[in-house]
Amino acid sequence: MQTHFDAVIIGSGAGGAPIAHTLAKAGKTVLVLEKGPLFLPQQHAPSGVSDYKRDELLATGAEKRITLAVANRGQSYYASHVEPDLNDEPHIYRETGKFNRRTPGDYATIEGYTAHVVGGGTQLYGAVSLRFSETDFQLHSYNEQRTDLKNDPNDDVRREARDWPLSYQDFLPWYEMTERLIGINGTSENQAKPFRADYYQTPLDPNPISGYIAKGMDALGMKRFRTPLAVITEDHEPSGRKVPRDPDTAKTGYVNRYGDPLGLKSNTWVSLLAPIKDLPNIELRANCTVTQLESDGYGNVNRVQYRDPSGTMRTVSGKVVIVACSAIESVRLLKVSALANHDFDRRIHQNDLLGKYFLTHCFGGARVRVPERFDKSLSLDSDWATEFCATDDYLKSHGLWAGAAIYNNTSDSALPISLARTLDAQDMDTIWKSFTERTELTGDQLLEWLKEDFGTTLSVAFMANQVPLYSNRIELHPTIRDKWGMPSAYIIKDWHSHDVALMDTIARECARILEKGCDLAEGSVQGGGVYLAENGLARIANHILGGARFGKDRRDSVLDVNCRAWDFDNLYVTDGSFMPTSGGANPTHTIEANAFRVAHHLLGRL
After folding, report:
1. How far apart are CA 586 and CA 194, in angstroms?
2. 3-class state of residue 180 by DSSP
3. CA nearest 467: which of 490, 489, 500?
4. Are 9 and 583 contacting, i.e. CB atoms less than 8 angstroms apart?
5. Between the chain's N and C termini, which has fewer beta carbons within 10 Å?
6. Contact 23/603 with Cβ under 8 angstroms?
7. Helix (H), strand (E) at residue 189
8. Which residues pair with 407 in a beta bridge?
9. How far is CA 518 from CA 208, 284, 500, in A?
10. How far is CA 216 from CA 212, 227, 343, 517, in A?
11. What SS3 class is residue 342?
């Protein structure tokens, strides 16, 4: 078994696969270590039957109970087949009770685990693939002279906002590379940022229910465009994927939040790793859990320790080591490694910023029931989007520090069992609440509820920047450990008062779209931000960002401009943890673009 490589990459998702793809095609020896299994779509499976099944029961499993010494001990949860068992590998978050009347204390949560599977979160995401706006890259410069911001009494925005060390123009070629190599459909016209080239495939016809969204956006003067989605609608030459004879086969509510057995959703396995899997210089080791990085005392990570599928400890090394486990787990791995190695500790903690400025997104939206019934299962995640709330005029007139992308969730509650499974739920921690808290939904009442809600609900969502705060952070929990005896990740975060004002403002815009589109009275639709959810502090939408931000000043960042840890020569971190701000859109596209950028830097040094 080979033990030394040009590059050892920990994680096969958005932050790792673009680097593996680039280096392997250039002839470098590459090892990808992935904690989860390799699930094949039908075109790669020897039997022709995908490892992913269109069966939501597989995505939730049997009922279990939390046994950890936490405030929600005894609560039911349902383990996904691509997420860890909550008792084995918990994320713990600190609840303050500030927003939702929950008892303060530590709670176990499945939030923050995108997916333990080859391809990571790109296997299960809704595939929304917007570029960040030009302003998203320069929020310090944009806000440093402003005095009009809502709900920022301590001037936190101006003090804590950071410009990225690179601009939108610097990212432009890497956005283009991502759109070409990943496979994305959508339209560029009416997007509020410059395009130099357009690699989008032609989107499929929108679901008829989205006509209400188009009508509402048009009535409000919101320029709209087809939401960029990482789902191919045409044959994709870079990955060799072919669309079915009827491209509308791609329209299925199972593309959103589920693995795609057809391989049409452009996860990093089908788009980047499968095309290079037969090269002699790349190896993918699935079901392998990295436990520690070791330093040689001279600024190099010289050993990567991991458990193989049998639990046997193994060691490998690389000229460069790339950590891309998703931000929470990457920070945890770096901190756990520091516990065991003084030199690693000294170098990774050259300042006190590792784990600090943890970010997610401000998000939320609004929802209505429309008068007609539609087959929403014949849809992807989203049809229409607008950046109306990201323009300079909008931000200045509403006193907001940063903008947001708004799009409709076409496939939301598309399937009957999903509708029941998620009623009154906020996340995977609280699924099936309808069966425990809505006991009246049986017999005729259940049928009546389905009649009213199935195929008739329509929602609009937004994604916006969260104010970066030093106090929002990832630590190691002092007492709770995972099944291997390593400290669990401890998520400590809060919403800033400006976050709340921003969410309230943008949620109202989502409600206005639905009011105009459905001919409803002004004020009749209520929108809201995620801070209002029962577990609003834990809600992450699996947009796991920050904690190891990059920058030009070693005193103010964990990573340099190329995402290399400042006091290491060969250690890079390329998942969402590198972001100084979270961006006004879903982050996967930007994580992939940055990974391609770092990969081309690495080619220059290997």
Report:
1. 18
2. helix
3. 500
4. no
5. N
6. yes
7. none
8. 385, 461
9. 13, 50, 27
10. 6, 16, 58, 4
11. helix
Buried b (16+ CB within 10 A) or exposed e, 430-443: bbbbbbeeeeebee
At residue 302 the predicted structure's pLDDT band, cuts being 50, 70 and 90, is very high
DSSP state of 231: B
Check: CB of residue 390 under 8 Å from CB of residue 383: no
Region of residue 104 (left: phi > 0; alpha: psi -120 to 50; beta: else): beta
- Rounded to a whole number of angstroms, the distance between the first and last alpha carbons of the chain is 22
Going by C-alpha positions, the residue among 91, 118, 105 that lies closest to residue 13 is 118
Q: Which two tokens stand for residue 524?
A: 């009749």
| 136 DSSP assignment | G
Distance (Å, whole) CA 106 – CA 604? 46
Other C-beta atoms lying within 10 Å of the C-beta of residue 552 = 12
Judged by phi (left if over 0) then psi (alpha if -120 to 50, else beta), residue 151 lies in left
pLDDT in tens, 259-287: 888 899 999 999 999 999 999 999 999 99
User: What tokens does 572 get?
Assistant: 């890079």
Distance from C-alpha of 119 to C-alpha of 273, rounded to nearest angstrom = 9
Q: What is the pTM of this model?
A: 0.96
Per-residue pLDDT tens over the stretch 117-163: 999 999 988 899 999 999 999 999 999 999 999 999 999 999 999 99
Take residue 350 and report the two structure tokens written for it. Answer: 């050259």
What distance in Å separates the CA atoms of residue 566 and residue 592, rounded to the nearest whole number?
22
Give me 462's structure tokens: 């937004």
CA 341 to CA 345: how far, in whole Å?
6
Contact between residue 105 and residue 95 where contact means Cβ atoms under 8 Å apart: yes
Task: Determine the Cα–Cα distance for residues 119 and 282; give it in Å rounded to an integer.
Answer: 16
Which alpha helices (H) appear in 192-341, and where do they start and end?
211-219, 268, 327-340
Q: How far apart are the C-alpha atoms of 324 and 327, rounded to whole Å? A: 8
Tokens of 200: 């989008």
Is residue 136 within 8 Å of 587, Cβ to Cβ?
Answer: no
Q: Can you tell me the distance from the alpha carbon of 103 to that of 421, in angstroms, rounded to the nearest whole number?
A: 25
Work out the number of other CB atoms within 10 angstroms of the CB of residue 417: 11
Rounded CA-CA distance 176/198 in Å is 8
Structure tokens at 359: 């970010």
Indicate the Cα dihedral angle 5, 278, 120, 84, nearest 10°. -80
